[in-house]
Specification:
The complex is a heterodimer. By secondary structure, chain A is an alpha/beta fold. Chain A has 11 helices and 10 strands. The N terminus of chain A is likely disordered. Classes of the chains: A alpha/beta, B mainly alpha. The structure holds adenosine-5'-triphosphate and magnesium ion. The site of magnesium ion has 4 residues of chain A, from helix 2.
Chain lengths: ~250, ~375
């Protein structure tokens, strides 16, 4: 039974626990994602959503539990760069771009391809890479700002640049932490549309507090609370769940 | 649309100017020293040739330091050790060239070994009578030390002030080691009384002029290598590491490999600088390992402009010119002046001289493949 699951699931978390100085940020968390799926993760502040992404991307080692990717890779045994190379990309809650690089160079650095020292010393931008950069720049609507330092972008634009970096990285699985924080309603709707398009060819995990946005995505929702899964289902189903209502109203 | 604050072509233009000036100096200064009669106002006296040559080796040390600090955020407080090790490798060659002309006239052993009643040449000294071997060691010894230190430190993710302390401890440990007679490198007297290099008398004006020219060319060459590194995609990765190390990892880059690469290249450049320094000043002793030397090099880079290779070179020359003047006029105040300079730079010119000029230069060109991004105000840790 378990074997079947681990080989079929793209991402498989089982019994994952993480403690910080005795505080359990993740508590026996289990979660399974199918290939090609988009999953929304919601939950109150401090529920452990970001910590879950930290565990998947190798930033934090779990105290207990299994984290498997594509049924073959034990992510708890790998470091950040190895996991990124396997095909897991991440957008951070606080947009994290390379501020002293231009928009275009941020995308170039993320672009799927050479990661070795000597290879990059000798790297020349190929026509295909240039086309790909142009394409991503238009997708994230930063074409006319390509030469701008990332430091000069607005908060929302940084969010989009970071999503663009994810596109450039072209990972099998995208982890997107609060992509619409600081965006206008129109931008939020566009981001939902963009993520749905990305999901046509990639698996995506989205953490978000904005319920309109989560509704726009129209995907299965997992509710985290105190480090474990409280409910799972469509947004309507979980909103009707008494314990979920309690958790959100109780705060 | 706000403009990027730095003229992208400027670095390239500055770089070309620096290389042209250095090549010009390599030709002009020896000519003015050797060919123009001393009575002429255009004559450059030999002691100036030596002094300028020494500054050029400091400039090379500064460029090597800027490569790791300015572009990869590794604040090495031990670069003087790599410089000194290159210097010792050259000094050992020069010692072995003395041969039987030493005070004790021993055919093989340098004077200090005879004085210590040693009868055999220590293994570490074998092969140093051959110039190519000594040159290899000039690069290999600093390179290997940097590799060993970097291997452990970068893999264990030692960064920031902890890394600085480790590098400072490294140079201090070497200082203590080289002070000891039984370490085998001349104890506190170091290596001196050199006679000739490749058969040319080390005191001869022609040799001095040639060493000056070589220092200028070595600086130009190393500058071009450093620039090739920082303007490549590898250089962009280095800057990404400097500004957001953890973020770079999440893109799949092995940060420790990048740091190790640039640290080793930088250490070898510093070694070359030391090797050119020693025959010009005629001595190498353990004081070259003193922590203050490494810190002084950091100040040169900060004054000239961290993250601008031309600035690093310029800073080294300017600060040392000031030092020469001070040690003549007000010797006891030099350290205060140096400290004051550092504080003033930090407060008033945080980007250094060249960084500040670049920032206020008019409108940038549209596209320039050689553009190097400026330092951001503060590093951005990935959350
Ligand atoms: N490195 C850390 N050290 C100590 N405590 C931590 C650390 N990282 C997270 N925590 C704690 O773990 C809990 C879960 O944090 P996490 O960031 O995963 O929550 P979250 O669900 O992402 O919340 P938010 O919606 O506010 O982003 C919080 O109480 C947080 O304070
Ligand atoms: Mg969070």
């Amino acid at each position: 039974m378990m074997d079947v699951r681990t080989t079929q699931a793209l991402l498989y978390l089982d019994g994952v626990s993480v403690s910080f100085d005795g505080f359990r940020a993740l508590n026996n968390l289990s979660l399974v994602m199918d290939p090609g799926e988009m999953r929304a993760i919601i939950g109150p502040n401090g529920a452990g959503k970001t910590t879950m992404m930290d565990v998947i991307t190798g930033k934090t080692r779990p105290d207990e539990g299994d984290v498997m990717f594509q049924g073959r890779h034990d992510l708890t045994a790998l470091d950040e760069s190895a996991i990124a190379t396997l095909g897991i990309g991440r957008k951070f809650q606080k947009p994290t771009v390379f501020e002293s690089h231009t928009v275009e160079d941020n995308l170039l650095l993320a672009l799927d391809g050479e990661r070795g020292v000597i290879g990059n010393l000798l790297h020349r931008l190929s026509g295909a890479e240039r086309d790909r950069l142009d394409e991503i720049l238009s997708i994230v609507k930063l074409k006319d700002r390509r030469e701008e330092l990332a430091a000069n972008l607005s908060h929302g634009q940084k969010q989009w640049l970071e999503i663009g970096m994810l596109l450039a990285q072209d990972p099998a699985l995208l982890l997107v932490d609060e992509p619409v924080a600081g965006m206008t309603d129109a931008e939020t709707a566009e981001t939902a549309e963009l993520l749905r398009r990305i999901n046509e060819t990639h698996s995506v995990v989205v953490v978000e507090h904005d319920m309109t946005f989560v509704r726009d995505l129209g995907v299965k929702v997992t509710v985290l609370h105190e480090g474990s899964v409280l409910a799972e289902g469509s947004l309507d189903q979980v909103s009707a769940n008494e314990r979920v209502v309690e958790v959100y109203l109780g705060r | 649309m706000t403009r990027r604050p730095i003229l992208p072509g400027l670095i390239g233009g500055q770089g070309a100017a620096l290389v042209a000036i250095l090549v010009g100096l390599a030709l002009l200064v020896p000519a003015l020293n050797l060919l123009v009669p001393p009575s002429s106002p255009f004559h450059v006296p030999t002691h100036f040739v030596v002094l300028f040559g020494k500054w050029l080796t400091y400039a090379l040390l500064a460029v090597s330091l800027d490569l790791v600090w300015g572009y990869c955020g590794i604040l090495s407080l031990g670069h003087g050790a790599f410089f000194a090790l290159g210097g010792y490798a050259m000094g050992m060659y020069l010692m072995r060239q003395i041969g039987p002309r030493g005070v004790y006239a021993h055919p093989v052993l340098p004077d200090f070994m005879v004085f210590l009643n040693w009868t055999e040449l220590p293994v570490a000294w074998w092969g140093f009578q051959f110039f190519p071997y000594a040159m290899l060691m000039v690069f290999l010894v600093p390179g290997l030390l940097a590799f060993a230190l970097g291997w452990f430190a970068f893999r264990s993710r030692v960064t920031g002030v902890y890394l600085s302390i480790i590098t400072q401890a490294m140079t201090y440990a070497l200082l203590l080691g080289f002070f000891r007679n039984n370490f085998g490198f001349g104890g506190n007297n170091g290596l001196t009384d050199f006679k000739d290099i490749l058969g040319f008398s080390i005191q001869a004006p022609g040799t001095r002029a040639a060493l000056f020219a070589l220092s200028a060319l070595a600086l130009a060459g190393s500058f071009l290598i450093a620039r090739a590194i920082v303007t490549s995609k590898l250089g962009k990765v280095l800057i990404a590491i400097r500004d957001a190390e953890s973020r770079t990892r999440f893109l799949g880059y092995r940060v420790e490999h990048y740091k190790l690469f640039v640290f080793v290249v930088s250490a070898m450049m510093a070694g070359l600088a030391g090797a050119l320094y020693v025959p010009q000043v005629g001595i190498i002793n353990p004081s070259e390992f003193s922590p203050a030397n490494s810190i002084e090099a950091v100040i040169w880079v900060a004054v000239g402009g961290r993250g601008t290779l031309t600035g690093a070179a310029l800073g080294a020359v300017l600060v040392n010119a000031a030092k020469s003047w001070f040690t003549g006029a007000l010797p006891e105040y030099w350290l205060f002046a140096l400290g004051g300079l550092f504080i003033l730079t930090t407060l008033l010119l945080p980007k250094g001289i060249v960084g500040t000029i670049a920032e206020h230069w008019p409108k940038p060109r549209r596209r320039d493949a050689e553009r190097v991004p400026p330092l951001s105000a503060a590093p951005q840790p990935a959350e």
